[in-house]
Amino acid sequence: xxxxxxxxxxxxxxxxxxxxxxxxxxxxxxxxxxxxxxxxxxxxxxxxxxxxxxxxxxxxxxxxxxxxxxxxxxxxxxxxxxxxxxxxxxxxxxxxxxxxxxxxxxxxxxxxxxxxxxxxxxxxxxxxxxxxxxxxxxxxxxxxxxxxxxxxxxxxxxxxxxxxxxxxxxxxxxxxxxxxxxxxxxxxxxxxxxxxxxxxxxxxxxxxxxxxxxxxxxxxxxxxxxxxxxxxxxxxxxxxxxxxxxxxxxxxxxxxxxxxxxxxxxxxxxxxxxxxxxxxxxxxxxxxxxxxxxxxxxxxxxxxxxxxxxxxxxxxxxxxxxxxxxxxxxxxxxxxxxx
Amino acid sequence: xxxxxxxxxxxxxxxxxxxxxxxxxxxxxxxxxxxxxxxxxxxxxxxxxxxxxxxxxxxxxxxxxxxxxxxxxxxxxxxxxxxxxxxxxxxxxxxxxxxxxxxxxxxxxxxxxxxxxxxxxxxxxxxxxxxxxxxxxxxxxxxxxxxxxxxxxxxxxxxxxxxxxxxxxxxxxxxxxxxxxxxxxxxxxxxxxxxxxxxxxxxxxxxxxxxxxxxxxxxxxxxxxxxxxxxxxxxxxxxxxxxxxxxxxxxxxxxxxxxxxxxxxxxxxxxxxxxxxxxxxxxxxxxxxxxxxxxxxxxxxxxxxxxxxxxxxxxxxxxxxxxxxxxxxxxxxxxxxxx
Lengths: 339, 339
Prior knowledge:
By secondary structure, chain A is α/β, with parallel strands linked by helices. Chain A has 9 helices and 15 strands.
């Protein structure tokens, strides 16, 4: 039998997304159904009940099957804590580091996070994005080569990850998304979010200011979002575009400089994230001469779950466990994982 | 008669503070009584009623007297709009630019704000702090000399003002205080503000990181406030100290560099603001070799009101109007103001 089912789940701070996946040898992964549920921060301890309420129909129809979860569900406020694996980390090491447990006869794997000393010399953390990096590594052709690649994962806590020779060498996180959201919703810089009208032109004004600042001058540039409005240079409806340009421009110039210390000159990067946000990063990157390719975030994530599934359950080529009878000998977190 | 009374008021966004002041020739200004009331953002248009409710007893006891107000009360959400005066601006020009009006037989002056093109090349604004700069200029001995002085006014929107030859030449604003407050109260960086325990040592760690960053790297450094806690390097109770160090350190290094372009090497600055916050700026400034003298903010502000009062009502030396009979010939906003 070369076909089997599993459940993949992205259980983050604010959202849960579950996918019923059908794996067929040598074919693209097929998502048969999806479910949405509450994020980790909205769950009061009863992760098991919430999970089984959402997938009950799938299990009734198809029988038991393994579950692979990623995201904050593995943090200390999640269902079961999954450790942070040190960089440099290969796909094999990340999968090995998972936390495995059983509930109601189902085998669960929660993917571990990553930690590193980033190019600032400070500790840094990732939880959730490593799944997309696994997907990118599975899909990319050159990950086993010497060529270093920079992957940008725009989001609340934007990640810049350096992948080389099949390993995530290091990464750095910027507070860009969270800071934008706070300033957008709670600061004196933005009067009215409802009238916001995104303008590429105004966004690029912000990028240009940010990419020509000297050290320590973001705080001063941020205030100009207000002063330019009061003095009539910037409309209320364009203030968000300008603020976004300042923050993303600053992130781009600062993170590229940090990563160039690790990998030399950067000519191109891959972007994995929300498409509107990825496009903003693309505009900012291209303004400083770096080519940016936007990858399909959902497709990359599904490649990640597939890679983990194959590592855990395809113990020898083509011999997959029947979905209704998970192997009791499946490797635990201490086992050697073939990939 | 060499003695007279007036009311001074700092009517900002969140607070109103009123002072009943007695001026006696050649003596320090004497504050006889104070009142507190709602900030401009809490007032629904009835500024006059709120004002007279607070000072009714003073007027009943002492008769009419002039009123000098500063702060957001002169903004477009305030009582009466007072314009922004362009820098470079002398004390005379600032006082001339005031908005004067009468209500219930009392003469009011609302001090105008200041605007400039700051050293980033962007428009910048001040409203409220110009009163303290007037006080500083009145109190400082060297303001008519060629020596340029940098005055730091720590607050929600921190101001760095360059004063030379008796004029406020230019200034730059940093979002430091507002950003600290947002990150402290609403971000994932700080878990619990109630357990915060300020540590000079941890604050200086943040300052050191911020003052050694390259351009664009504040966003990455901010995230380390979280990662260092998760990995046990930084306690939850010290996270605020570290965050404060990052932001104030960044403001200091960036603003000094901007101002040095205008005035050459900076060896010392004057600090006017809340004493705990001024002390933080002093620590950060001294760590980068700049001596910082902390001035008494209330005393400086009272010197500012006194300077405005004398400019408006002391038409010739020693001949002050009787407090119960304001001169009808007091100069309006177009008049020449002796100072």
